[in-house]
Amino acid sequence: MITPEELGAAPKVLLHDHLDGGLRPETVVELGREIGHGLPRSDAAELGAWFVESADSGSLERYLETFDHTVAVMQTAEAIKRVASECVQDLAADGVVYAEIRYAPEQHLHRGLTLEQVVDAVREGFEHGMAVAERPIVVRQLLTAMRHMARSMEIAELAVTYRDAGVVGFDIAGAEAGFPPTRHLDAFEYLQRENAHFTIHAGEAFGLPSIWQAIQWCGADRLGHGVRIIDDITQDGDKVELGRLAAYVRDRRIPLEMCPSSNLQTGAAASISEHPIGLLTKLRFRVTVNTDNRLMSGTSMSRELALLAEAFGYDLADLRWFAINAMKSAFLPFDERLAIINNTIKPWYDSH
Ligand SMILES: O=c1[nH]cnc2c1ncn2[C@@H]1O[C@H](CO)[C@@H](O)[C@H]1O
Ligand SMILES: [Zn+2]
């Protein structure tokens, strides 16, 4: 049994977390008041509960509607800096030692900011957060393009421009059904030519064709969620068979950015104990554990790991495996990844 203290103290690595899905409820209330944005609840605790209840919709499309309020209050450099700094501080307090935080710059232009000003504001917020956090943490940005929009090439170029200024990769997000990854093929081909890294939300609200396109057409380094890879695995008693795509994903060690609580809310999985992460972990896929949207799921890295430990009996050795899997899969340069594994992750787990 892992104690709550151990869970909090254990070094954790987070690869899939949305900046606009992780605000503190109090911050949404305060920023909303400052700009006169009407919110469904004015009390912070009630608003926090409202986000979780509303996101508990059983559909990705309705889950995503809750972001209207967080995106609305993140339209000035000051507001974005505050949210970014608080994000880093909250993660550090939860024992996260490395995080890649994503958001869509194109969604923060309503009050006159340019794409560059948005990325700069997030960078300043992250730097501030890393400087004041109660525990050491390294945080980098992933720039997301919205899959139903047509700005992915521009956002991919932005990611390359900022590659030495805190941005380590690119992503596409938003409603999956009807918006296949190949819709943004030019952006992915451009990134490959630039030796840049990217992950793709795939296999969350749509199945194998989405995963297949993300990997075999677009060349994704990692899969956001990827839970539906389970559709290519058949189980007959103790006998487990992998289809060609599932075998490819496992053979190539393609990291799966799994987000258990988020999947329950969008209907991608029925319960934690039935979540495909159990089988995929047993089969030694490159599984990583993530939060997706801490506000909408009312969660944290510690909580996600606690839920898994309870459902599957995981111990500290499993947590170590998840942390090292994630660190190996990070878009940070190899020597920096290795330093975090050898100087931070392993020493803690070796002594516990
Ligand atoms: O689980 C998810 N699947 C797909 N899109 C998502 C998910 N969570 C958040 N976003 C979308 O990504 C945007 C940028 O951060 C958010 O505004 C939200 O629309
Ligand atoms: Zn996501």
UniProtKB/TrEMBL annotation:
Active site per UniProt: E204 (proton donor)
Organism domain of life: Bacteria
Any matching Pfam family: A_deaminase
Alphabetically ordered keywords of this record: Hydrolase, Metal-binding, Nucleotide metabolism, Zinc
Residues that bind substrate: H18, D20, G174
Alphabetized SUPFAM superfamilies for the sequence: Metallo-dependent hydrolases
Annotated residues for binding of Zn(2+): H16, H18, H201, D292
Site location (Important for catalytic activity): H225
EC number: 3.5.4.4
Family to which this protein belongs: Belongs to the metallo-dependent hydrolases superfamily. Adenosine and AMP deaminases family. Adenosine deaminase subfamily.
Main function: Catalyzes the hydrolytic deamination of adenosine and 2-deoxyadenosine.
Name of the molecule in the record: Adenosine deaminase
The species this protein was found in: Kribbella karoonensis
Lineage: Bacteria, Bacillati, Actinomycetota, Actinomycetes, Propionibacteriales
